[in-house]
Design a protein that fits this description.
Layout (H helix, E strand, L loop, with lengths): L17 H7 L3 H26 L3 H9 L4 H31 L9 H36 L7 H23 L24 H29 L12 H33 L12 H35 L6 H14 L15 H13 L1 H15 L8 H23 L2 H7 L3 H31 L5 H27 L15 H30 L41 H8 L12 E4 L4 H17 L3 H19 L5 E4 L1 H17 L26
Antiparallel strand pairs: 1-2
Helix pairs in contact: 1-2, 2-6, 4-5, 4-6, 4-17, 5-6, 5-7, 5-15, 6-7, 6-19, 7-8, 7-19, 8-9, 8-10, 9-12, 9-15, 10-12, 13-15, 13-16, 15-16, 16-17, 19-20
Length: 696
């Protein structure tokens, strides 16, 4: 085992703090680094101070941090994702500013720029997109399938804790030490001990390993929930399309995450134990790492995109007042994408000297995956065709997606040709393609879902004006930032370059940094929208729970939903069961009898493991072996102690359920239905006048 520099505090010393560099060598690069560290420190102080000043520690602990309610866990995932999104966007702006500074070295050092694109990619993939997807899925899946909770509520809480603790390691790396310079893919030899003996790659390794465990547990949880907890009568071909996309994403998680975890642990063995899995000597092979990483990496793209496809499916159907066109073909296309996603990882190696036959096979497989994606696009357009389309905020995100994502998909088909890919693979053309898929394909979908289901989660609608501003800023910002990169990539500008010399690149870089600033404004507009919506929430209350004339079961209950979700588990008879019930006039039945309902008790195990695993990772990064051993013992003891807990559920008496449900039914019967023309008006209390029948 490597022990150089280890002691009571391992290799942790004064030089590990950014302020040391600023004192020793004050320059713009150090100012940027210390500003980032200061933002983290000030942010922590403000949060802790606010919670203390307003005496919110008790409610935070009782109602959120120890809750096993899938809805609250989902909301916490989304809050975490938005916090990490702020850092990811800021880093992107700094990188674009560095490249727009003109020919020469700019204002950042090469190593700092390498850290930025490493953290930016790691954060946006693992700690923004994944938690945002999981947050929406956590909130929605039990509600959509008529269940009380996920299959394993406590495991759900643990998954959140592990994800958050891993994400916090990236925040800690701003304050203590530095992050990896090996990119978000962490390729050896750039992350090997010989090339990079610092702590940066270790921060990446342990963050990925721990978050990967949490992600895998979540995939298992979602799959079992949908397989086993569907309401009576909800056959697979009656599932909402969103649930189908989550099933396929869960399968991708279960099969794709282990290769990443194994690759990261093998890299750790190389760095910590002097193994030689990925070195040039003693039998190592760097390409083994690349194969394992992309065996995860390409399914990961569809792990994120498929849930966004499900969101768009729900949004297009609801705001077109039509049933989703081509449901069966969409199911088949979703499953086809999930299977084909495991057959295309080698297209990342077209420039690495594979045989022509291998390149041709994987080029064809890459082109094939465009077919089911095209089926989806045509089905969505057919859903919109002759519908009574409402230009709402979620629909605007969807329409922006349809236009921009097709460009990204077509550029992917271009890159599937090995001869073309050989020319542009290491240029900004690939960066443009990648972001062209992930921003309209994933982020826009998640923001559409955020606006669409927000009133269900909190009982009031988001501000429509600021939502439209956000859509405009995200769309324009994306186009200005990334579409020029297609052109400059074809001109030969390499990706990952912190500086450049060709003056013909400069106009494109100027446009890109303007776009990045607009994206930053878009992020700020999301925050402003939330603030304005909370301020004006009394004018936007929708307690009845169906403000959009939606189709699926989650809209058939109050907003926000009770802890037990459904007073009586529904019996499903139709694919769009709630829409069908509204057409029949029996959407809000009064049951003959009520039963006691069991819900999970609060538990602190998820929060405990979040803290313990965070300290454990920090100790491993800095070689504080005694602390790592102590945290290992504490984590094992926490698991063992929890298994002795006899009571894991609390019972809500039937009489309490009856009182709450009957009070809500009285509200339903005393509310005035609102048509689509008054959807954003204060008169909309969550009882929409059914409009589906008029167009079908």
């Amino acid at each position: 085992m490597t022990t150089n520099g280890s002691g009571f505090f391992g290799r942790l010393n004064w030089d590990a703090f950014p302020i040391t560099g600023l004192i020793q060598n004050p320059n713009t690069n150090e100012i940027v680094a210390n500003t980032a560290a200061a933002i983290v420190i000030v942010g922590v102080i403000v949060v802790v101070g606010s919670l203390t000043w307003f005496r919110l520690w008790g409610p935070l602990w009782r109602d959120w941090l120890t809750s096993a309610d899938h809805k609250k866990i989902g909301i916490m995932y989304i809050v975490f994702a938005i916090v990490m999104l702020a850092r990811g966007v800021l880093e992107g702006v700094v990188m674009r500013a560095q490249q727009a500074a003109g020919p020469g070295d700019g204002f950042l050092e090469a190593e700092h720029f390498a850290e930025l694109f490493s953290t930016h990619g790691t954060i946006m993939i693992f700690f923004v997109a994944v938690p945002f997807v999981f947050g929406l899925a956590n909130f929605l899946i039990p509600l959509m399938i008529g269940a009380r909770d996920v299959a394993f509520p406590v495991m759900n809480q643990i998954s959140l804790g592990l994800t958050v603790s891993a994400g916090m390691m990236l925040m800690v790396s701003l304050v203590v030490g530095e992050f990896s310079t090996g990119g978000w893919t962490a390729y050896p030899p750039y992350t090997g001990a010989a090339f990079n003996p610092g702590v940066g790659p270790d921060y990446w390794i342990w963050a990925i390993v721990v978050s990967g465990v949490g992600t895998t547990l979540t995939g298992i949880n979602f799959a079992v929930t949908i397989y086993k907890l569907r309401a009576p009568g909800m056959k697979f071909m009656r599932l909402p399309m969103y649930c189908w996309t989550i099933i396929c994403s869960s399968i991708l998680i279960v099969f794709a995450m282990p290769p990443l975890g194994v690759a990261a642990l093998m890299l750790a063995a190389d760095r910590y134990l002097d193994f030689h899995f990925f070195t040039n000597d003693l039998g190592g092979n760097m390409m083994n790492y690349a194969n394992m990483f992309w065996l995860f990496g390409h399914p990961e793209v569809y792990l994120l995109v498929l849930p966004a496809y499900g969101i768009y499916s729900e949004v297009f159907a609801t705001f077109s007042a039509k049933r989703l066109y081509g449901y069966n073909s969409l199911v088949i296309a979703t499953m086809s994408i999930a299977v084909l996603s495991f057959t295309v990882w080698l297209h990342h190696f077209f420039t690495m000297g594979q045989s022509a036959l291998i390149n041709a096979v994987f080029g064809i497989a890459t082109m094939l995956i465009a077919i089911p994606t095209g089926v989806k696009v045509y089905d969505w357009m057919a859903t919109l065709f002759r519908g009574r389309i409402r230009i709402s905020v979620p629909m605007l995100y969807g329409l922006s997606f349809l236009m921009l994502f097709v460009i990204g998909g077509l550029s992917g088909v271009i890159l599937a040709n090995p001869t073309v890919d050989y020319q542009v693979h290491n240029t900004l053309f690939l960066v443009a393609h990648f972001h062209n898929v992930l921003l309209p394909g994933v982020l826009f979908g998640l923001l559409a879902g955020y606006n669409y289901w927000f009133p269900k989660a909190f009982g009031f609608r988001l501000n429509e004006f600021w939502g439209r501003v956000s859509v405009a800023l995200w769309t324009v910002g994306f186009m200005l930032t990334f579409l020029p990169l297609y052109f400059v990539g074809l001109m030969g500008m390499p990706r990952r370059s912190f500086s450049w010399e060709d003056p013909s690149f400069h106009p494109y870089m100027i446009v890109a940094v303007v776009g990045a600033l607009i994206i930053l404004a878009a992020l700020l507009s999301v925050i402003v929208q939330l603030w304005v919506s909370i301020r004006d929430r009394e004018k936007a209350r929708v307690p009845v729970g169906d403000p959009w004339d939606a189709h699926t079961l989650e809209w058939s209950i109050p907003a926000p939903p009770p802890s037990y979700n459904f007073a009586i588990i529904p019996h499903v008879t139709d694919r769009d069961d709630f829409a069908a019930a509204k057409e029949r006039g029996n959407a809000y039945p009064s049951p003959d009898a009520y039963e006691d309902i069991s819900v999970p008790l609060n538990t602190g195990i998820g929060f405990s493991l979040c803290v313990l695993s965070g300290v454990w990772m920090f100790a491993l990064v800095w070689w504080i072996w005694w602390l790592a051993a102590l945290m290992t013992i504490f984590m094992l003891a926490t698991f063992i102690a929890w298994t002795f807990k006899a009571e894991t559920e609390r019972v809500i008496p039937a009489d309490d359920v009856r009182k709450q449900h009957e009070a809500w039914l009285d509200l339903v019967h005393n509310s005035t239905p609102v048509d689509r023309d008054h959807e954003t008006a204060p008169e909309n209390r969550g009882l929409a006048r059914p409009d589906l029948e008029a167009v079908t």
